[in-house]
Design brief:
It is built from 13 helices and eight strands. With 297 residues, the protein is α+β, with helices and mostly antiparallel strands. The chain folds into two domains: 159 residues, no CATH class; 106 residues, no CATH class. The strands form four sheets. It has a two-stranded antiparallel ribbon. A two-stranded antiparallel sheet has the order 2-3. A two-stranded antiparallel ribbon has the order 4-5. A hairpin with a 6-residue loop joins strand 2 and strand 3. Helix 1 crosses helix 2, helix 9 crosses helix 10 and helix 11 crosses helix 13. The protein starts with 22 loop residues before the first strand and ends with a helix. The relative contact order is 0.13. Bound molecules: iron/sulfur cluster (SF4) (2 copies).
Length: 297
């Protein structure tokens, strides 16, 4: 099951762009001769909601799950951190694969749910919205394409539970896509903003702690009821994290700041870093980035 092979010359992707109402022939079931074959050679990028579902399924914290079940990858030339699902020692088989099939089936990642479809999300230049289209992925080992079952992409997505994953991950995917397609025009993100990307995307308990911290409270002006909801609901917290990332990475301001505390904090940060008043104008020009860096001190 390879989810990242769109550009390779030997790509198993059928180059016909499909929409939600298009139909394709495919059925996977336990009695099929190729059962488990797709999980024996994997290359699966994990999304934030994948990690929440899997770590809860396994009774772990996100940090414990990341350490035991994932490997680090860079998602772009700026080192935007990504996580892939780990394989078994000495093989390309998924770490969750058992002789009976997937060991985490009802909480399997979005990429596993999509198979044998590929998703391509594109954002036209200067457009704020991303457009999705679908392709059939036809790998030799997969006999599901020979099964006499035809369904629409919409129905297949629904049956596989993809809709829920996509709805929760949508803004995150937009962030990744925008960061990749904007390249150097948006500039090199600071180390602190990359750390924040990791925290908000993958380490939900760490991010909850960050949002509850006095440092966060000093800068952001959140309604107390909303803060309580964030502390109790991991999906709400994830979505809030995506808003915060859009604010930090692209200056899309949707989370109110406490104006006076912001100034005080920046001033303290400037003093600690030895930035003189003469540099103040330049410092203020970089205030957004500096503000988020100061949160880490
Ligand atoms: S998580 Fe489950 S479905 Fe996905 S590759 Fe691993 S074993 Fe297969
Ligand atoms: S039919 Fe395809 S997706 Fe299903 S088990 Fe076989 S190889 Fe995997």
């Amino acid at each position: 099951m390879n989810t990242n092979t769109v550009d390779k010359p030997t790509s198993p992707i059928i180059p016909v762009q499909l929409t939600l109402d298009d139909k394709f022939q495919f059925r996977c079931h336990k009695g099929i001769a190729c059962f488990n074959k797709c999980c024996e050679n994997i290359d699966i990028m994990l999304t934030p909601y994948d990690i929440v579902r899997l770590k809860n399924r396994l009774g772990m914290t996100a940090r414990e799950f990341i350490d035991a079940y994932t490997v680090d990858v860079a998602m772009d030339g700026h080192g935007m951190p990504g996580l892939k699902l780990r394989t078994k020692e000495g093989s390309n088989a998924c770490v969750n694969l058992t002789p009976e099939g997937c060991g985490v089936y009802s909480d399997r990642p979005a990429a596993c749910r999509y198979y044998a479809l590929g998703l391509v999300s594109m954002r036209r230049k200067d457009s704020p919205v991303t457009e999705d289209s679908y392709f059939v992925v036809r790998e030799e080992h997969c006999l599901g394409h020979n099964e006499p079952h035809v369904q629409s992409i919409r129905d297949y997505r629904r049956e596989q539970g993809v809709d829920e994953y996509d709805e929760i991950n949508r803004e995150w995917r937009e962030i990744v896509l925008k960061k990749r397609s904007s390249g150097p025009t948006v500039g090199q993100p600071s180390q602190r903003s990359l750390e924040l990307f990791f925290l908000a995307s993958y380490d939900i308990e760490g991010f909850r702690e960050f949002v509850s911290s006095p440092a966060f409270d000093e800068v952001f002006d959140l309604d107390p009821a909303f803060k309580r909801a964030l502390a109790q609901d991991e999906v709400k917290l994830l979505k809030f994290g995506f808003r915060l990332l859009k604010q930090v990475l692209f200056g899309e301001m949707t989370i109110p700041l406490k104006a006076d505390a912001r100034e005080k904090r920046l001033e303290r940060y400037r003093q600690r870093k030895g930035i003189s008043l003469a540099d103040k104008a330049e410092t203020l020009a970089n205030a957004q980035d500096t503000l988020y860096e100061s949160l880490g001190d």
